[in-house]
Specification:
Elements: E1 5-10, H1 18-29, E2 33-41, E3 45-49, E4 52-58, H2 65-84, E5 91-94, H3 99-111, E6 114-118, H4 135-155, E7 158-161, E8 178-181, E9 199-203, H5 212-222, E10 230-234, H6 240-247, E11 253-256, H7 264-270, E12 273-276, H8 285-292, E13 297-300, E14 316-318, H9 323-334, H10 337-354, H11 357-372
Parallel strand pairs: 1-2, 1-5, 2-4, 5-6, 6-7, 7-8, 9-10, 9-12, 10-11, 12-13, 13-14
Antiparallel strand pairs: 3-4
Amino acid sequence: MAQGKKIFFLSPGPKYNLEHVFAKRCDMLSRDFYGTVLTAGPESKRVRYGRIDIHCIAEKKPRSLKSTLGFLVLGFRYLYRAKKNKEPYDLFITYDPLKTGLLGAILCWIFDVKLVTEVNGDYTDDTIYMDIENPLKRRFKKFSMTTVEKYVLKKADGIKLLYDGQVDSFKPFPRNPVVVRFQDFVDANRFVNLREDKVVLIAGYPFWVKGVDVLIEAFKIASPSYPEWKLKILGHYPDQEFLEHYIQGDPKIFHHPPVDPDFMPEHIGCCGIFVLASRTEAMGRVLLESMAAGKPRIGANVGGIPSVIEDGKDGLLFQKASSVDLAEKLKLLMGDSALRRKLGENARRRYEKEFLPDYYFDLLSQFYKGCLKEKKVDES
């Protein structure tokens, strides 16, 4: 029998690079755990990293009903076989308290397995639903997602947050779960400061959530004072006409198509300023990657961003959705190379002190072990 506790992790797709997403995570988790990850991607595939097996099901259309049913059927099969062979899973972990969380709650109820859910967003925030044009559909989407989240959180034995107060609106939790708060896993060892191009970089999608419109407007305000700077918008924007409508032919603003994660170190490592202008954000992995690269960062003062940017010390914060305030922060950095250097160096030092993978996995291992301990009081 394998040593350690047996875990099952349900992670939605699409995952295009299994090694990038899972190899480091699984190798380090294998110190204390073994088990299975069920995910989805463009093709069916099975690999093993450390003591954890990755089962990737084919998902032609991201987040389709077919993949959801596949998760439910395969999850049932894995848990059934494990229990039948008298080697049941000890912990079932879900990426979020939504689709994967609901599937996890169902399977954990059937097979009497402890449920842990990660919370990687604020699903009560109206911003998330801005891309839904129909107001009735928008309200229904928010209602259904928050209803599922409330149900899953009340069934969870462990809840991992990215910032304090993230799920306060759903309290109290009747099962008295273990609740912790620390950053998500980001393997940023390949991110270094390669050089400083006069480029402001934003990376991410969707448009409204990431505040791309806010940054475009702010850059246009700041740009005349610093004409040598350009703005790069990196990410998946299928509606180019929509994006161009906001760029309005500005020659200093350009879109770069999305890249494989393996190429992100080059883009971040060469930028002069990194910006995350999100209207809602639980953390923003790109902020840790740019932190590791020693880049000066500007982030919106919202959600979990202030937990990874200390205003004035290792980055700058601006008022949510305020292009005027963001423009002032841009001009401050564009015109002061010494400040850019100072904030970048402080960011790198903080990354090495607080956000290295070893630090993350120590916290994660302690969290999982805490969830597996028998409760000392009757919570029925």
